[in-house]
């Protein structure tokens, strides 16, 4: 049975996080076997074990930075060792129906992230209608994003929902991955997101989620992934 740790970005994005907190995060991620750690750009450069990828946010958390600022931030993070960039769209542009601006913003950031490094696009799905979610996901795919991601976890409208993940998954239809993030605090919730189509999870409380997974496996072991 494959642990969900293998698709978790173990995350620490609190503004009060210290360098010591990030070092503890990295140690936890190595212990848990998560896919990556996800941190703020001010924490770079960092040394992480070879088993971990390093994800860094961009335009976080509001997305209201100019495209030039987001692009420069992403470029600097890549130069400082980031393997993956999680950028926030301008949600207001999406709400105004300016999906051309959303796509141009993403494409500019994509231009400074060379393959095989990864671009994830945070759309704040809880703040969007279904039609807006579809349009933003299409813009992200057109701009070359590798993943669409539900949430920053900081928006007052909330984080990931099963419904949003399912819609995002159906929209990208294998052309990009789907990262569920924001409010995933239990193994049950994580399972639901995966069942809806999530291929990556953003989790800050990974220890609790993985402890629940281990407990469930011990109580009722089954064959197969997840």
From TrEMBL:
GO terms under cellular component: cytoplasm
Pfam families: DeoC
CDD domains associated with the record: DeoC
Annotated catalytic residues: 86, 149, 179
Keywords carried by this UniProt record: Cytoplasm, Lyase, Schiff base
Superkingdom of this protein's organism: Bacteria
Function: Catalyzes a reversible aldol reaction between acetaldehyde and D-glyceraldehyde 3-phosphate to generate 2-deoxy-D-ribose 5-phosphate.
Similarity comment: family membership: Belongs to the DeoC/FbaB aldolase family. DeoC type 1 subfamily.
Protein name: Deoxyribose-phosphate aldolase
Species: Conyzicola nivalis
Phylogenetic classification of the source organism: Bacteria, Bacillati, Actinomycetota, Actinomycetes, Micrococcales
Gene that encodes the chain: deoC
């Amino acid at each position: 049975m494959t642990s969900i740790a293998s698709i978790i970005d173990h995350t620490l994005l609190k503004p009060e996080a210290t360098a010591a907190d990030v070092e503890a995060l990295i140690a936890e991620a190595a212990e848990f076997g998560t896919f990556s750690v996800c941190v703020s750009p001010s924490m770079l450069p960092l040394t992480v074990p070879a088993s971990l990828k390093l994800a860094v946010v961009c335009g976080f958390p509001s997305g209201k930075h100019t495209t030039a600022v987001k692009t420069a931030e992403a470029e600097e993070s890549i130069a400082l060792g980031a393997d993956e960039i999680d950028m926030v769209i301008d949600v207001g542009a999406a709400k105004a129906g300016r999906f051309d601006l959303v796509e141009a913003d993403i494409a500019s950031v994509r231009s400074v992230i060379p393959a095989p490094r990864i671009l994830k696009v945070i759309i704040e799905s809880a703040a969007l209608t279904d039609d807006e979610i579809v349009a933003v996901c299409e813009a992200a795919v057109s701009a070359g994003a590798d993943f669409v991601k539900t949430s920053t976890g900081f928006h007052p409208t909330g984080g990931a929902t099963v419904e949003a993940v399912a819609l995002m998954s159906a929209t990208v239809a294998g052309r990009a991955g789907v990262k569920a993030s924001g409010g995933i605090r239990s193994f049950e919730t994580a399972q639901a997101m995966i069942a809806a189509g999530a291929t990556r999870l953003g989790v800050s409380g990974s220890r609790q989620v993985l402890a629940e997974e281990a407990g469930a496996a011990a109580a009722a072991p089954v064959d197969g992934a997840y």
